[in-house]
Amino acid sequence: MNNYAVKTQGLSMNYGSCKALNSFDLQLEPNKIYGLLGRNGAGKTTLLNILTGRIFQSSGKADVFGKRAYENIDILKQICYIEEQGFYASTVRISQVLQLASGLYPNWDKEYAQSLLALFELDKRKKYRQLSRGMESSLGLIIGLASRAELTVFDEPSLGLDAVVRERFYDAVIDDFAEHPRTIIISTHLIDEVSRLFEDVIIIDGGRLLLQADGIELKEKSYYISGKEQAVRAAAEGAVIMSEENFGGTLILAVYAKNGLRQSDDTDIQPIPMQKLFVLLINPEIHGNLRKGGVIQ
Amino acid sequence: MKAVLEDGKNIYLQISQAIEDDILAGLIKEEELIPSKNQIAKHFQINPVTALRGVSLLADEGIVYPKRGIGMCVASGARELILQKRRKGLYETYVRTLIREAQKLGVCKSELIKMIESGETHE
């Protein structure tokens, strides 16, 4: 079946002895917003570079819309990849960058690009080298959104952006996605801020896929339980314990409860924010338990 | 619709409750349209799928129903349905918590009842 937007199988990328990606299997459905999370050096950018045809893998398969993107113009046209750092010549003006982009992307919407320029308060006469880090990121957002590419990838889009622009970006993604559904991958470190946009969350660690899950379901199964030791232990029965803390006579457990929790009067149950959950899941000390509990791969 | 979602709480439950609150308050009347999933998504800055889940929950309970080509409509009798459901939940969500807190603070039963009665007269 070729109906995946992205499908990788045994995808590996070696840089000398460093395995940036290690037998990576991923399947992304079309017209969803995915969040790609991972620590620095986890392999996020390597994965994105391969998917978008910037580099070629050492082994394994990486297909976008059923075909390899590398040196395939029909597929590449459908992909818009906004990298952390743009590489435009420093004397080029914003208007020229947009002109160039309009020729690259078949779905480019010129009017929308103009309205985004106003939204992100960018002066199109400015030269690329005059842009601040935040403005450079804003330009990337404009191109990514106005390209309306079937696969749009934002690698760390919020770098250097102030809170106002970030909020406008999230609004714009939701707005435009509603009218023009497409597959969007957002790689970010601002997890709590962006996680509401995600339908699925992909966590990558040490070049491997740690977990791919529906963001809401993941959050719904993750809780802090606190209270007296015995009551907390009883409430946590059958759940995977991710962390344990004794604090002022109470026991606080972070758990992943596949089948929900038993409500009880003598414990406090609170959801775990996505960013905290990420930090927990990425902790190698509990990977054995998580794997046993079927939480991670 | 409320202004912002509360952090940490289940997003789609908050959405279905917010719509229910609007119906209870008479802000959306029976046989009127509720906001579309995209409007809700935009308002709360969430993925439209999450918004849809909140609305689907209401549809499952017969509080809203799809009107072909227009959107989701508040069913007639929806207000009564919500009232019944929420009354059932009143004990679970509020009374139990209230009793628990009172016990923690050493407030005895008669004091608690007095508080409720004086609260009612303030209303």
Question: Any key phrases for this structure?
Answer:
heterodimer; A: 297 residues; alpha/beta; Rossmann fold; four-stranded antiparallel beta sheet; 11 helices; 32% helix; globular; B: 123 residues; mainly alpha; Arc Repressor Mutant, subunit A; 2 domains; two-stranded antiparallel sheet; 5 helices; 63% helix
- Described by its quaternary structure, the protein is heterodimer
Q: Count of helices of chain A?
A: 11
Question: Biggest β-sheet of chain B: count, sense, barrel?
Answer: 2 strands, antiparallel
Give the count of structural domains of chain B: 2
List the total number of helices of chain B: 5
Let me know the number of strands of chain A: 14
Strand content of chain A: 25-35%
CATH class of the largest domain in chain B: Mainly Alpha
Q: Unreliable runs of chain A, pLDDT <50, ≥5 residues?
A: none
CATH superfamily of the largest domain in chain A: P-loop containing nucleotide triphosphate hydrolases
